[in-house]
Structure formats: C-alpha cells, structure tokens
C-alpha cells in the first residue's frame, strides 16, 4: 500500500511540476502553473497558507499568482463559514474560461489594429495591408477559438447527459 501511495504522490508532484513548465512556456509564471496543477488534482478549496505549504513557496508568491489565476477565471475565491481567510478552488469550466480570456485579449488586439488603421493615412498602403492581414489573422483565430469553445461545451453537455442517464435505475 505504501508503494502505491509513494507512486501516487510522485505522479501528482510530477504533474504539478509539468503544469508549471507548461504555463511558463505560455508566458505565465511557473508558480501559477503549479497552483493550477494542484487544483486540477485536488479541486480545493485551499487557503494561501495551505498552497504555500503544499508548493513550498512564499505566501506572497501564492497571493500574486492566485490573483493572476483569478483574473484568468481559472480559479475562484471562496470562503468557509466562520473563517475569515480567503480560500481558492478551481472554477467551474476553467478551460473554456481560459479560452474565453484568450478571445477577449484577441478582440482587444483587433481594436488596437483597427484604431491604428483608422489613424494612419490611406496612402501608407504597405502598412495598411499588413494591418489588414493582422486584423484578418485575429478574426480567424477568434472564430476558431469560439468554435473550439462551443464544441467543448457541447461535448461536455452531451457527456454529462449521457452519464446522468447511464446512472439512472432501469424501470
């Protein structure tokens, strides 16, 4: 039994470490990935102190990274009755929320591109063409991401319905 626990602990630690590296490669802090990885395995809720202890990092680092993950809507802040501490747990549908955040940022980028197109004279044709291409690129990405989000939501809804009916007692 102890070997199974050690293997499980090692697998979880490896997953948490790898999530840190994955998110770091995406431009986020490694600690944010560690927090997300831990919450994928153990939903939570966790206090700042619990996260700092489990991940062996400072409370300040945990505080900074939980705020970031909250802004990305991957985790949510919650409370426990009678406890004044804040707790954090994985948000409902964290992955489509993450993608929706990417879409919001791409829409802001499109606004910047369109504003620049309007501000530049039309005779800057090379610049206008490159801006037009960048705008089309963002538009295609947004459309693709929205299709992924819709497909993901549809698949999740279908899977939960199938599971619900599969667990029903037969008549």
Brief account:
The chain has 171 residues and is mainly alpha-helical. 73% of the residues lie in helices and 6% in strands.
Q: What does this protein look like?
A:
- This protein has 171 residues and is mostly helical.
- The protein folds into 2 domains: 2-90, Orthogonal Bundle (Arc Repressor Mutant, subunit A), CATH 1.10.10.10; 94-166.
- Helices cover 73% and strands 6% of the residues.
- It contains 6 helices and 3 strands; from the N terminus they run ααβααββαα.
- The chain has helices at 2-25, 30-41, 48-55, 59-71, 94-119, 125-166, and strands at 46-47, 75-78, 87-90.
- A 3-stranded antiparallel β-sheet has the order 1-3-2.
What is the CATH homology-level superfamily of the largest domain?
Winged helix-like DNA-binding domain superfamily/Winged helix DNA-binding domain
How many structural domains in the coordinates?
2
Give helix and strand order, one letter per element, not per position: HHEHHEEHH
Low-pLDDT runs of 5+ residues are none
């Amino acid at each position: 039994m102890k070997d199974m626990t050690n293997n499980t602990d090692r697998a979880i630690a490896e997953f948490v470490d790898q999530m840190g590296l994955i998110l770091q490669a995406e431009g986020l802090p490694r600690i944010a990935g560690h927090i997300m990885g831990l919450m994928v395995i153990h939903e939570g809720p966790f206090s700042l102190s619990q996260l700092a202890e489990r991940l062996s990092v400072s409370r300040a680092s945990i505080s900074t990274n939980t705020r970031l993950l909250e802004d990305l809507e991957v985790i949510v802040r919650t409370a426990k009755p009678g406890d004044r501490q804040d707790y954090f747990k994985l948000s409902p549908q964290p992955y489509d929320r993450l993608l929706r955040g990417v879409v919001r940022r791409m829409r802001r980028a499109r606004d910047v591109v369109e504003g620049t197109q309007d501000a530049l004279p039309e005779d800057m044709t090379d610049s206008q063409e490159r801006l037009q291409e960048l705008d089309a690129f963002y538009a295609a990405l947004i459309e693709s991401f929205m299709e992924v989000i819709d497909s993901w939501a549809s698949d999740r809804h279908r899977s939960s319905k199938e599971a619900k009916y599969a667990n029903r007692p037969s008549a």
